[in-house]
Design brief:
InterPro entries: DSBA-like_thioredoxin_dom, Thioredoxin-like_sf. This is DsbA family oxidoreductase. The chain is built from 9 helices and 6 strands; from the N terminus they run βαββααβαααααββα. It is an alpha+beta fold. The longest helix has 16 residues.
């Protein structure tokens, strides 16, 4: 049984990380396991972010009005994700990165059948380890960690390949009226936001039953 799951997300979105983990929990709990084809689609929450990113405290303070407000929002994600087999290591995060390079690398990994593994590694690197996922060396290392050629990944990222394609896919998402992420399409079902694992399980079971 084949099932296509399309995930539209950005790698600095904590709820996208939560949704990815909850989706996996739901898949693991299915009695009848489908053969899943994952399609990852980019959504640039900060399309104008400089390639080098910004100091996270400065960026978040400006975005949310104060650092205290930012920390309160961070605490909300930590509380909401308890039991989701993930950790938010906010104290380790020093920069808010541009995610353009990460999305470009996903295109490259997808051509080699490793986009889903790479997505999980990028989310974990940023939120659980505090690594700068806007940095070419970090992204190339992550490619290596999921079995891809790190040197080739670095060469790819130092080029402009895939840049226009990411902006085009981002534009297409906005034309489809995507206004927030995550957006998870499971067969013909659509889940917006990091809903409870039961919501993902229900959508998966519906898709399997109607396959």
């Amino acid at each position: 049984m084949n099932l296509t799951i399309t995930l539209t997300s950005d790698f600095i979105c904590p709820w996208c990380f939560v949704a990815e983990r909850r989706l996996q929990q739901a898949l693991d709990s299915l009695e009848e396991k489908p053969e899943v084809q994952y399609q990852w689609r980019p959504y640039l929450l900060n399309p104008d972010m400089p390639a080098e990113g910004m100091d996270r405290k400065v960026y978040r303070s400006n975005k949310f009005g104060s650092w205290e407000r930012s920390q309160m929002l961070d605490a909300q994600t930590v509380a909401a994700a308890k039991g989701d087999a993930l950790t938010f290591n906010y104290p380790a995060m020093r920069r808010t990165p541009s995610t353009l390079a990460a999305h470009r690398l996903m295109l490259w990994a997808d051509a080699q059948g490793q986009a889903h593994a790479l997505a999980g590694a990028i989310f974990s690197a940023y939120f659980e380890q505090g690594r700068d996922i806007g940095d070419v060396a970090v992204l190339a290392a992550l490619a290596g960690e999921v079995g891809l050629n790190a040197e080739q990944a670095a060469d790819y990222l130092r080029s402009d390949e895939g840049r226009d394609r990411i902006f085009e896919l981002d534009r297409q998402a906005r034309e489809r009226q995507v206004r927030s992420v995550p957006l998870v399409e499971i067969g013909t079902g659509v889940i917006s936001g990091a809903q409870a694992p039961e919501a993902f399980l229900h959508a998966l079971q519906m898709a399997v039953d109607h396959a």
